[in-house]
Amino acid sequence: MDFSFFSNLNQTLIDLLSAGVVIGLLIALVYIINRLFKWINKKIKDVYSSKIKGINIKGYDIITPRYALKLVIGGIKIIRAFLLLIIIYFWLPLLFTVLPWSKGLTEQLWDYVLTPVKIAGNAFIDYLPSLFFILVTALIVRYIIRLLKFFAEEVEREKLKLTGFYKDWAKPTYNIFRFIVYIFALVIIFPYLPGSNSPAFQGISLFVGILLSLGSTSIIANAVGGLMIIYMRPFVIGNVIKIGEVTGKVVTKNLLVTRLYTLQREEITVPNKMVIENKITNYTSEDVDKGVYLHTEITIGYDVPWRKVHEVMLNATVNIEEIMQTPEPYVLQKALNDFSVLYELNAFTEKADMMPFLYSKLHQNLQDGFAENNIEILSPNYQAVRDGNKSTVPANTNNDQKDS
User: Fold this and answer.
1) Alpha-carbon distances, residue 145 vs 142, 149, 192 (angstroms)
2) 58, 231, 251, 369: most buried by Cβ count inside 10 Å?
3) CATH code of the domain made up of 235-282
4) Which residues does residue 76 pair with via DSSP β-bridges, in sequence order?
């Protein structure tokens, strides 16, 4: 009778029983770990309101307490999953050891894990010189940027004064130089980046470059316009200006757009490309005296003495509080037209932001003043039919000259 069959059967049963015990131990261990982490999560939630705080900087919640709790619980879940993976991984060789027919799988399993770890470790060691070069370059760039920022802040605060260099140039100039430094640093470290020589990396770089070149035409035009505005200084923030047909106060001036706030409480955004293509009128430039001259034109017939016209026009400025009497308003006779004389009233005000209202008041006073003196306003055009006998020279011209 062959007892080897029973011997092999007994050994197989023992191996299966041992494997069952190992599996049972694993299940028990996994159960204990899950219960432990469940208890930890419960304890964390219990102390959530008093112990877990968010991150707050200057009144702004970067991370709220509720989100901080989610991060903590998420981190604990990751630790639990990692711990279970480690246990299962080291449990498998034990199971394979118990089952003789699976002993070869143990070495194969270790090879699956150790081979990529060895490859990654060797690659990291080989990459250390390049990594050291990148870190040194980044450190140098960091201190160069800090130095540029220091000088920019000193100029902006007017602690450091450079001849011909305005303080509002400091920040944009710093941004330009910072951009140049970053680009130069990227060019230097690009060959040392992992995979920079691979066809895939080069293809992505080419694709991104094409997208930028095709989609940034208007952006570049506006950026160039913004640089011209910054360094030509046709206006600064706070000036009242007119761009084309738009008049308002400058509230924003950046590299791409200029924003004006009008008297109608409208915020108008003008691309810088359009700004430099239009005529810019600055009513409150810091390079001239504070204030602006209001000027309006009107045509009056030759039959009205010009001294009387001057008197009526100057009187129109007297009862407008915002119009200064020093310097004195004045009238110019700008043209002797075929049928009328073109007069221009000039009056000074420091309220440039109120110009539309002041022009309205001035025009109202002019209309009232000429109406009270029975003087006909001939704007914008005048044509008369005469019999040839009546002169357009005022009858009391000589008397007016004597009085003057």
Assistant:
1) 5, 6, 22
2) 369
3) 2.30.30.60
4) none
Nearest C-alpha neighbor of 244 from the set 224, 286, 287, 273: 273
Residue 96 dihedral angles phi and psi, to the nearest 5°: -70, -30
Helix (H) or strand (E) holding 144: helix 103-156
Give strand pairing partners of 63.
55
Q: What is the pLDDT of residue 3?
A: 44
How many CA within 13 A on the CB side of residue 309? 24
Which of the residues in the chain have pLDDT under 70?
1-16, 18-19, 48-63, 92-110, 113-114, 195-196, 198, 200-202, 204-205, 207-216, 286-289, 379-404
The gap between the terminal CA atoms of the chain, to the nearest Å, is 156
Fold matches, 235-282 and 292-389: no
329 secondary structure, DSSP code: P
Which pLDDT score, from 0 to 100, does residue 206 have? 72
Task: Report d(CA 357, CA 157) in Å as an integer.
Answer: 37
Predicted local confidence at residue 403, as pLDDT: 47
CATH of the domain spanning 292-389: 3.30.70.100
pTM over 0.70: no
**Residue 5 backbone dihedrals phi, psi, to 5 degrees:** -65, -45
